[in-house]
Design goal:
27 helices
Amino acid sequence: MSDRPSQMKKLQTFLTAPPRKNSRREIIFWLSLSLTFTLIYSYMALSEAFNGNYVVQDDARQHVFWMQRFVNSQLFPNDLIADYFQSVAPLGYTTLYQFFATLGIEPLMLSKLLPPVLALISALYCFGCTMQLFPVPIAGFISTLLLQQSLWMKFDVVSATPRAFVYPFFLGFLYYLLRKNLLGVCLSLVLLALSYPPYVLIACGMLVARLVKWKNPGIKLCQNRRDYWFSALAILVAFVMMLPYALHSTEFGPTITRSEAIAYPIFHPEGRQSFFSDNPLYFWLIGERSGILPPLLPPLIWLGLFLPFALQKPQIFPLARRVQNQKVLLDLALTSLALFFAAHAVVFRLYLPSRYIEHSARIGGAIATAILLTLILDWALNIVTPAARQSNGKKAIALASSLLLAIALVLYPLYDRSFPRTNYRPGRLPQLYEFFQQQPQDILIASLASEANNLPTFSHRSVLVAREYAIPVHLGYYRQFNQRVTDLLRAQYSSDPTQVQQFIHRYGIDFWLVERSAFTPEYIAQDSWLQQYQPEAQRAIAQLNSGTLPIVATAIDRCTTFQLGDFVVLDADCIVTK
């Protein structure tokens, strides 16, 4: 029994004591464990990414398909959709994919290989940031584990789109800011500006906020001149990097305004880019693009909100005295909130408001929760130590709470069957993709079928429209796209051969992909995307209810060049040729 107190003390020292100076063994152990879990989660995602020849992450269908031009410059000629998504892609993001394309790694392949790399970099910086705030290695492990679980429950990093880079680069910025490393901060700002510009604004806000000190009573400005030079130089770098974005005028502009957006059904509930809501609580609190409360998982990550209260109780949580530079977390929260409301004030000009909250909350929540859980663990170990003069009941409560938190932390992926959430979309019609691959590279395919979303990625051929590409941020693009959908909807259900012929000639349609079931009223009535295009959708339903077959439907028997199940590919020239 005499060894029991010493054993408990050793356990407490191993778990919650700061590492001894000149000893990196504890740090290496917990960091290695952090990276191990990161690799396990990455492997789970990779197994889904490579589960078939035709698999793509949902958002990559927008942001990656056009990069096949880096492999074959003849693809997507005069393609409105490809040109638009290329024009809005950040320079660094585009350059990275282009560089690897020259090495023989195709963009779609790279989009599957990048997420584990980004996750590992994020894990390293998250661990480092936590150690700068709270030099207890197990806290670094917990923060990394929480962050990785949260990342793999959302489609940011796994998408390998521009927002995937915010985590490694912004965490890098936080790490170097905490270490007061000007070169590291500036490099991080450059990388952020080249990949995900909105978060440069948060970084600049934090550089300003660090000059404000909270003192009792009131607020005081920093008295250290070097801090002013540090922030000024970093902000100057950010300004230079963001200036091209401010001066750049896209051919697809202007950016849509609030009053213009209200007129489009796509921004309302059930719309492709739902933003507005008649329910103000939903709009301001949990709206996907407008709300202030992000859908963060795992649930444990929300415990970080209680960290400020624990820090005020050092007599209960002795390790709270070792927390340092915690104002950085407050600066992150306040800056994110400020930009959230600023984005609402000039809606769509500063991108989506929720994006300024979501990523910050995930990073700050993981770190704050890790610190709090470490404080709780140390408190529990102090109580259950045999030498502690505590009742058996209190010891049992401390032990049980620690075990429950540990189980909830480590085993969360096991009791959430959807983990990891990757949103990888398997292509279910390989014969169709291969058919189009065999056609000339400059063909244009017209289709209202959802399968049109996959054709640019898997067949490397242009489509006139597809639901996936209905992004209404820039009016110069969306007005053209909107007109195309309206014209296609009108033509597909028209009984006037002249109207169909004019549509084919106007857009240069080569093939028309339809579903046999498309020529029923239910097909249109049950498609929420098509229902946004009124009055054409209702006119099409009325046409089908009248019993008159559309010209395209009557051409199926004589113009089919390929068919697979419900899908039929029609030769466009044949449709208008009697």
